[in-house]
# Entry
Amino acid sequence: MIDFDQLDKTIHEKSRLSIMTLLSTRGEWAFQDLKAELGMSDGNLITHLRTLGTAGYVQESRDDSGTRPRTTYAVTPAGTKAFKSYVDVLEAIVKAMNPG
Amino acid sequence: MSTKQDALEHLRVIRSLMEKAHIYRAISAPAAGLGGVLAIAAAGLTGWQMMQKGGLPEREGDTFLWQWLVILAVTGVVNVILLAREAARRGQPLVSDGMRMALKAILPPLLVGGVLGVGLIVHLDNHVMAVLVWVVCYGLALLATASFSPRSLVRLGWVFTLLGLVLFWAWAANGDIRMMPHDEGPAALIMGLTFGLCHLAYAGAVFLSRKPEAVTARE
# Structure
């Protein structure tokens, strides 16, 4: 029987799930690219990135060497592990409710 | 919404975003490097013959076309082998969604470039125009993959397209080259400059900027 409490609540929120999916797929995203891809406002995106950062799932990097500072985000090893576990639990739920 | 529907909806979101964010490299850097070396060797041989003769190399009939078709075939086979090995390492099939996407994007410009280029050589004996068509169409094929290709490949597409246009302009404005008894020498040099040097630069740039791998999408 699946224990639904195994679902990581930090990732389960749809916006954060989207952020984790993009970062896990491509490795590293600039803030502006994430914003454009997800269609989120600056404030909303920052809030979710901070939540993921506090959980240790996402790491922020700032590059001030160019004319404009550039902030990029990447998934940490802990984030990768949590995201994989989250997807495994989702798949297990679907399998358990749709046997055969 | 039931738990199952909720889980399915979340999996759908994950899959859809992974497809959008997916990056597929249709040209393996080592294969590009090999193609570059072969192209430079072929162009270098022509250049050496020109220096020996103090002018154009001897006219060689269909040799020019076959020489470059063989280089294309060797590089293409090596590219497929390397892509297959990479796919196997990731536990994915060779003909993945990424490869299907890439083939759909690159086939039209490659087909146009191939047919026009070979036609220009076989029927009009115009080698320079043929290789310029190859260069521009190859550049457009790479640019057609811009939405899912790594930046390096998109940059390579721009380099080929712009270089092809600039070289066309230079060729069209230069009557001396167009009035040559035959144009296999300049055509080989353009191939060496574009398919040779540009591919070597691309392969070098990819090797220098290699990053740790990201998590891959499940099939």
Notes: Confidence is low (pLDDT under 50) at residues 212-219 of chain B.
